[in-house]
Amino acid sequence: MRSLYNSTVAMSIALIVTHALCADTASSQNYELAKPTAKQLRFADWEVGGFIHYGLNVYTGQEHGDGREPASKFNPTELDAEQWVIVAKSMGARYCCLTARHEGGFCLWPSKTTDYTIANSPYMDGKGDIVRDFVAACRKHGLHPALYLTASHDAHAALQSQSGKIAWGAEREKAVAKALSDKSRKVAFKKVQLGQLRELLTNYGPIAFMWSDHWDATDPDGVWRAATDLAAELQPEMVFMGPETWVPGNETGHVVYPMWNAVSTVDGTNYSRPAAGATDFSVKNNYGLLETDVRRGDPFGKFWRVRECTTNSGFHYGGWFWHPDNLKKTYPRSTWEHIDLYYRTVGLGANTIINLPPDSRGLIPDDFVVAAKALGDEIRNRFSSPIAKLDEVVRDDTVELKWETPTSINTVVTMENIANGQRIAKYTLEAYVDDQWIPMVPKNKLIGWAPYNSNPMYETIGHKKIDRVRPVVTNRIRFRCLESIAGTAELRSLAVYHCDPIKRNYASAYPYLSGVDTTIESAHNGVRRDNNYIGKQIVIGGKPFEHGLLVCPVAVSKTGHADFDLSEFPKAKGIKATIGIEDHVQRNGSAVFLVQVGKNVEPTEDDWETIFKSPTMRGRDPGKEIHVVFPTDAQHVRLLTTDAGNGVHSDHSVWADARFVE
């Protein structure tokens, strides 16, 4: 036994290390695992980043930018880059990333490669440099400066000679391919991209991280290898998104779990994206978005990629850029949803980069300022004062943590020593109670849908795993590795906490189901409560409703659902609701509505029984009133909506005034 002293909690901590051989899944314990570089380790420790999506799109209403809107439209009146950084820091961000040039091609610095820059805008009479001001603000306030540049998507450089609007997606990619089929134009395009990358990585001092959107997106223009090599040459200590980090397969702030940071790649080199494993998939598209590649990683992969979760719709409604009251009205989600976002990203071993879009003034709006600080306060309140903590590297398969006074704990934070690779594939946590070791029961409920785990158990750890457990009074816990990759487990840290439960706040109140908690929910852009898709009143077939659940089918599964535990509502005998497609989509949209029940305490996906199925409901149809009676042995109820064949327009499916009948 060794004794350690933790100055943070001012108590002695006994570390008992015993050896219990883990079941190795590798053929040899001497297998050489992929390991992160020093800069990848630093980046993983930053955990939370701020993402500043700002540019010409704010003033044109576009989301991706077509490269044709005049630079003269860019005219912020109160721009303050320092405010952006202060807001990000209040949220707990350690780094902050600015869209120096987004996909439309408009540059927030006076680039010499193009006239499509702020030098030709009214802002500061053409003498401004927002990149310079942003980087300076980051350094002033202790955040690591990061920049966004996507060298394969530059609509202005590729399409400036084209006439008429070209829609984002397949239409644009076809137009770009045609334009760059001319060899001289292709050479000129590449020159612009590398020239802009050189300016950003030469003129502003050390840059900590670069978000290289669409990296290795089939590389039809021969840009990405050259850009990757140039970035490594100019800023060798900079983390470059693509060869050193990877996105998780969505923009909603979800990381697949279990998750391995090591990856195999499609061509066996570090110049390409991760290869798919047996349980992975990609949503096909014509423009190579990385966000559609869901990858669990390969424990025996050759290359290390830090996961970084993008959180557009995970943190707020609307697009990446701020938009006023229109189809993409931009406003933040609730604090409890932001806490869930933290648990399902950082708490599962990934970084999270949270979008904070400035408005047309050039300032992050007040509601985002409040929301960002509230999340930062929650993180600090929960994790700044551990009850006990081991804070040194221990190489063993059983690690015990002991403190003086028994107290109630409900959270265990484990960090693996990933400097030597990621090994742990399965583990358990136990507490010493009444002279015996008992399992700690995980209570890791998260917002999620397949393939994203809404109830992660004890599998991978990687950089960090935050486990919420059923409260237990103890002064002694232990971690036990049950399965490992290539040898004995290595822990970097083990800590216990008692955290407040997540308090989910809704606008309405029981008996309306929009006012009570779900056990699990899954919907595109999240289940919306008491508002339509753009934050206004719900209207179905011309009739307004004050309450309702908007349960949008998810693109991958083509379903959406909200589940309720009937043990919390013992008098509930059935459900009443008005179902339909909200009028916001006019005559578009089609969905089928189902009520299902589960008869087990913890129902699996095979346990659900359908007790009601609607006909296909379409946009502008009158709402259909339903009254469904539950069987007497029902323990759970699920409100399920399915895409009935009209694609994205089906995500306006509403259970209006849904309530239990007692």
Q: Please give the largest β-sheet.
A: 10 strands, mixed
Low-confidence stretches: 1-28
The CATH superfamily of the largest domain appears as Glycosidases
- What fraction of residues sit in β-strands? 25-35%
**Intertermini distance:** 59 Å
In angstroms, what is the radius of gyration? Answer: 26 Å
Residue-averaged pLDDT, rounded? 88
Number of helical segments with 4 or more residues: 10
Estimated structural class = alpha+beta
The top level CATH class name of the largest domain: Alpha Beta
- Which CATH architecture of the largest domain is right? Alpha-Beta Barrel
Number of DSSP strands? 37
Q: Can you tell me about this structure?
A:
With 662 residues, the chain is α+β, with helices and mostly antiparallel strands. It has 4 domains: 38-246 and 305-384, TIM Barrel, CATH 3.20.20.80; 262-304, no CATH class; 388-497, Galactose-binding domain-like (Jelly Rolls, Sandwich); 513-661, Jelly Rolls (Sandwich), CATH 2.60.120.1060. Helix content is 16%, strand content 30%. It has 10 helices and 37 strands. Strands 1, 2, 3, 18, 19, 20, 21, 22, 23 and 24 form a 10-stranded mixed sheet that branches. Strands 8-7-6-5-4-17-14-9 form an 8-stranded parallel sheet. Helix 3 runs parallel beside helix 4, helix 3 packs parallel to helix 10 and helix 9 crosses helix 10. The termini are far apart. The model is unreliable at 1-28 (pLDDT under 50). Its EC number is 3.2.1.51. Residues 1-22 form the signal peptide. InterPro entries: Galactose-bd-like_sf (IPR008979), GH (IPR017853), Glyco_hyd_98_carb-bd (IPR013222), Glyco_hydro_29 (IPR000933), Glyco_hydro_29_N (IPR057739), NPCBM_sf (IPR038637).
